[in-house]
TrEMBL record:
<protein>
    <recommendedName>
        <fullName>Lipoprotein</fullName>
    </recommendedName>
</protein>
<feature type="region of interest" description="Disordered">
    <location>
        <begin position="229"/>
        <end position="255"/>
    </location>
</feature>
Length: 255
């Protein structure tokens, strides 16, 4: 299982298990045929560039990401070359760290603790707000429903402004991603027209994404910032002496 899939669908159904399509990442956008050759209008080309920008992150092999939504902040590191992901989550004074390498998942309930739990992902509750926040792809998934976009200036990086339809995003989601996309669609009062802003780098990779959902509790704004594209990242298993099988009490809290 690739880190692309791990990062794209961490906790929609099961934690960090399945996700977006496992097709290869798109190539360098600067090497693609022109829109005239492809039969695309200028507006179509802008929409496609913005829509594909999250997947293009994986062209770099590794990257870091900070996601902020309401009281939750997620700091993540992805190493697609090693099928690895590490996240640190801060939520209302509560913090946790998760490491995923291949099919193995470890979780530290409190930063700095001497104990890591080896987790049976099938027993975790997908509705937990902290766990759902680990689904990095969930936050960018609305780009699958992008229906219009404009780009400021002539540079590929933008900035971009667009409108996403969460109904279309849910329809276009993979089978593993669809339940989470449908929940987001159903919870948003502005599901048909979510305003989106973004910035890409000069290779068409997502650098910043911001959008606001109107939900029952008010407005929920999500911001994604990526950095360190292609830089070395250390994602290692916890020390063996600190690892324990997750006890029943762990699943009572998180499951």
């Amino acid at each position: 299982m690739s880190a692309r899939r791990i990062a794209a669908t961490a906790l929609s159904g099961v934690v960090l298990v399945a996700g977006c399509s496992s097709t290869s990442a798109p190539g360098d956008p600067r090497s693609r045929p022109t829109s005239a050759a492809e039969g695309l209008s200028a507006s179509d080309e802008v929409v496609n560039a913005f829509k594909e920008s999250y997947d293009r992150l994986f062209d770099a092999g590794s990257f870091s990401v900070v996601i902020t939504t309401g009281p939750i902040q997620v700091q993540g590191w992805v190493d697609d070359r090693r099928d690895a992901l590490k996240t640190t989550v801060f939520y209302n004074g509560r913090s946790s760290e998760t490491v995923r390498i291949g099919d193995d998942l470890w979780m530290q309930e409190k930063l700095g603790s001497d104990t890591w739990y080896l987790v049976d992902v099938s027993r975790l509750d997908q509705s937990d707000p902290v766990l759902r926040s680990l689904d990095l792809g969930r936050f960018a998934g609305l780009l699958d429903g992008l229906v219009s976009a404009t780009r400021g200036g002539d540079e590929l990086g933008g900035p971009y402004k667009g409108v996403a339809d969460l109904r279309l995003a849910a329809k276009n989601a993979s089978a593993a991603r669809r339940p989470g996309a449908e929940r987001e669609r159903d919870s948003a009062r502005n599901a048909a027209a979510v305003p989106v802003r973004g910035v890409l780098d000069d290779a068409g990779r997502l650098k910043q994404l911001t959008y606001t959902l109107e939900v029952a509790e008010g407005q929920a704004t999500a911001t994604i910032m990526t950095d360190d594209l292609g830089e070395p990242v250390e994602i290692d298993p916890p020390p063996a002496g600190q690892v324990k099988k997750a006890p029943e009490g762990f699943y009572d809290q998180w499951g």
